[in-house]
Specification:
single chain; about 375 residues; alpha+beta; OB fold (Dihydrolipoamide Acetyltransferase, E2P); 2 domains; five-stranded mixed barrel; four-stranded mixed β-sheet; 19 strands; signal; endonuclease activity; hydrolase; Endonuclease-I; His-Me_finger_sf
Length: about 375
């Protein structure tokens, strides 16, 4: 339901003095349908010369570029190919401009195959992107500077640096969460309502509480997995708090996440059994990225909990599963406009930190 309801949220940001449309990552662009207009931000990583090869040195032409989310990317499967029409070749073609290798650019065009690979054609604009130092005072979504210190890292080093980036933020009280969720989870088709995570229902923002047919505050990382309750910190971190039907929330309880089980009568797109919960397809990736965030944000320093993702269900203590399933859900349900908008609102209006796995989905594979 969410995918059908989502509208394209409009943002602008200033880059080298030019007003531009908000961009999406290469990962997201590769999952857009052919024929759709896209605005993609990525690093120049080479020149495609065939269906299976991208030159990354000794460039032989100015006719196309390969873009990736990682400036050090070497796998063609993680690249999107950009056809350069004549007006862009002199400035961005790598044969004439080899120094642009590794540069971050924004490309506006049409999502269509190129060399029988995910590509962008009919390019209408190419702009070099400069770091804004991570600031978002203008409401923008450029985050290059925000993650600059994590560039080139992988594994435990990347996870540790992302923790450092997102660690310090404003903490809300549990009562303040009500108002925050009315904003972060607003129905893009009806500003009077919020969209409920598991059922996908659109319900009045003010029908909240603890009674049947109202919505309440779901801890996606169940609060008993670490016993953090509703105290400030993990208990009120709205990156993993979402509005849900009271009874559906109760059915989920503190179950781990995994595939399988019996359809839930009240929300049959969700399934559950004695030790796991499977949300509807439209939010599987959302759930996974919230869990990845929590395991990165809460690492045990400064007297906080060390939350960890286990690769099994039936967990206890500060663990939640199941890692392999969450990774699969992350791939099957890519980041969309609703998540990106929610991430921006949390950053700009409430906590001052971001979910890295929404901004950079590739970080999941780099870490786990």
């Amino acid at each position: 339901m969410k995918k059908m309801m989502l509208m394209l949220f409009s943002f602008v940001f200033i880059v080298t003095g030019t007003v531009q449309a908000a961009s999406i990552s290469v990962y997201d662009a590769m999952n857009q349908p052919n024929g759709s207009s896209v605005s993609v931000e990525g690093y120049i990583v080479g020149v495609p010369t065939s269906t299976t090869y991208v030159e990354q040195s000794n460039f032989s032409s100015n006719y196309a570029l390969a873009l990736a989310d990682d400036p050090n990317e070497t796998e063609m499967n993680n690249m999107i190919l950009v056809k350069l029409d004549s007006e862009y070749r002199s400035e961005y073609g790598l044969q004439n401009n080899p120094g642009k290798m590794g540069e971050l650019i924004q490309v506006d065009g049409v999502r269509d195959p190129y060399f029988s690979h995910e590509g962008i054609e009919n390019v209408s604009s190419i702009t070099t992107v400069t770091s804004d130092g991570g600031g978002s005072d203008d409401g923008g979504t450029t985050t290059t500077g925000y993650y600059a210190s994590a560039s080139g890292l992988t594994g435990a080093s990347l996870k540790a640096e992302l923790h450092n980036i997102i660690d310090d933020h404003t903490e809300l009280s549990y009562s303040q969460v009500w108002g925050a969720l009315r904003n972060t989870d607003e129905d893009p088709s009806n500003s009077n309502n919020v969209v409920l995570l598991y059922s996908g229902k659109s319900l009045s923002k003010y029908e909240n509480g603890g009674y049947v047919d109202e919505w309440n505050r779901e801890h996606v990382w169940a609060k008993s997995h670490g016993d953090f309750g509703t105290s400030m910190g993990p208990g009120t971190d709205i990156h993993h708090l979402r509005p849900t039907d009271v009874t559906v929330n109760s059915s989920r309880g503190n179950l781990d996440f995994d595939n399988g089980g019996y359809a839930l009568t009240e929300a049959p797109s969700n399934s559950y059994d004695s030790d796991s919960w499977e949300p509807r397809d439209e939010v599987k990736g959302d759930v996974a990225r919230m869990i990845f965030y929590m395991a990165t944000r809460y690492e045990g320093d400064a007297g906080e909990l060390d939350l960890e993702i286990a690769n099994y269900v039936g967990t206890s203590g500060p663990y939640l599963g199941k890692l392999s399933t969450l990774k699969s859900w992350h791939e099957l349900d890519p980041v969309d406009a609703f998540e990106r908008n929610r991430n921006d609102i949390i950053f700009n209006d409430y906590q001052g930190n971001r979910n890295p796995f929404i901004d950079h989905p590739e970080f999941v594979e780099y870490i786990w």
